[in-house]
Specification:
Number of domains: 1
Oligomer: single chain
Strand content: over 45%
Order of helices and strands: EEHE
Structural class: mainly beta
Largest sheet: 3 strands, antiparallel
Strand order of the largest sheet: 1-2-3
Length: 59
């Protein structure tokens, strides 16, 4: 977490990379171990390359 001071007030903020959920096809190994009726894809988080600045505290 980062802290900036403006006119004597402390502002905490965080810089992080935005992520999004995507579906991808199962690998051969995952296909082998899946149960009947399960989906043929897997959902996971992937990076977007975009930064997010989130202000944690302010007055």
């Amino acid at each position: 977490m980062l802290v900036a001071e403006v006119s004597g007030e402390k502002i905490e903020f965080q810089v992080r990379e935005k992520q999004k959920q995507e579906r991808r096809a199962l690998t051969d190994d995952e296909k082998r171990w899946r149960s009947p009726g399960e989906k043929n894809w897997k959902q996971e988080l992937v990076s977007t390359g975009r930064l997010v600045i989130e202000v944690k505290t302010w007055q």
